[in-house]
């Protein structure tokens, strides 16, 4: 029993280190392709190297970092293939989840979602886009939650940080919000009407549009790596052939 508090503290530090590093990657404070110095990260976070190692292992599972033998650990580089794969997974999840949630979600929850979208519309007219981003995230999370599929929720949660990374890395996203908000209205209206097939098809179309917008933004801004380069297309260490 005497060892139990120490385990709790260690777990807490590892979780804090994970969230700290994940947020730094998502915000762009740690750049794509940047080599990560374990000692510097532990000093900056004020923790030992052990929680940082645990955090990096989780981030590698999230595909936000990767380790190269004899070279070190690097922030991943977003590729067009990554965008295709992540959006493809999201499309499959949301196509199924929206159909199921249409009948499972109470009408009052659907009405709350519609009011939140409308409030975000009014905020965008004032030049405030944060309510839209909050509404966007809440809409998709709520639909998946009401699908009743806990495994699907876990998979979608595992994509959340990567999806946010794509949005922030590609652009502020404000030039796409009007079209996205209009699609959100259509999805919720179809759900309120009880038309599960229309709702799921609109959800699938929405993710296809997001994929196209994301690829266009990355190409326009010259970000990430070309298709097929993969996360291993990182700067070679000195002396590497």
Sum this structure up briefly.
The chain has 241 residues and is mainly α. The protein contains 9 helices and 3 strands.
Which word captures the global form? Answer: elongated
| Distinct helical segment count | 9
Euclidean distance between termini CA atoms: 53 Å
Spans of at least 5 consecutive residues whose pLDDT stays below 50 are 1-10, 228-241
CATH architecture of the largest domain: Up-down Bundle
Number of strands: 3
How many separate structural domains? Answer: 2
Instruction: State Rg.
Output: 20 Å
Across the major sheet, the strand order is 1-3-2
What is the assigned CATH homologous superfamily of the largest domain? GntR ligand-binding domain-like
CATH topology of the largest domain: Four Helix Bundle (Hemerythrin (Met), subunit A)
Which class of the largest domain in CATH terms? Mainly Alpha
- State the share of residues found in helices, binned by percent: 55-70%
**Average predicted local confidence, pLDDT:** 86
Beta-strand content bin: under 5%
Topology order in helix (H) and strand (E) letters: HEHHEEHHHHHH
The main pleated sheet reads as: 3 strands, antiparallel
The class by helix and strand makeup works out as mainly alpha
What does this structure look like?
The structure is a single chain. The radius of gyration is 20 Å and the shape is elongated. It has a three-stranded antiparallel sheet. Helix content is 70%, strand content 4%. Helix 4 packs antiparallel against helix 9 (196-221). It is built from nine helices and three strands. With 241 residues, the chain is mostly helical.
């Amino acid at each position: 029993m005497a060892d139990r508090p120490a385990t709790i503290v260690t777990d807490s530090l590892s979780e804090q280190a994970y969230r700290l590093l994940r947020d730094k990657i998502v915000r762009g404070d740690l750049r794509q392709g940047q080599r990560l110095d374990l000692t510097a990260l532990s000093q900056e976070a004020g923790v030992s190297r052990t929680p940082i190692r645990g955090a990096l292992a989780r981030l590698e599972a999230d595909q936000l970092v990767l380790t190269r033998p004899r070279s070190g650990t690097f922030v991943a580089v977003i590729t067009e293939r990554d965008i295709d794969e992540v959006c493809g997974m999201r499309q499959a999840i949301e196509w199924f989840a929206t159909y199921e949630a249409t009948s499972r979600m109470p009408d009052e929850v659907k009405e709350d979602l519609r009011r939140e979208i409308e409030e975000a519309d009014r905020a965008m007219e004032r030049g405030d886009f944060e309510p839209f981003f909050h509404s966007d995230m809440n809409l998709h999370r709520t639909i998946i939650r009401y699908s009743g599929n806990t495994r699907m929720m876990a998979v979608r949660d595992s994509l959340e940080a990567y999806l946010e990374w794509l949005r922030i890395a590609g652009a502020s996203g404000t030039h796409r919000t009007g079209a996205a908000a209009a699609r959100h209205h259509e999805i919720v209206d179809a759900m309120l009407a009880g038309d599960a097939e229309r709702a799921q098809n609109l959800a699938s179309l929405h993710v296809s549009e997001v994929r196209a917008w994301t690829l266009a933004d990355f190409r326009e801004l010259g970000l990430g790596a070309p298709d097929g380069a993969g996360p291993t297309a990182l700067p070679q260490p000195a002396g590497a052939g």
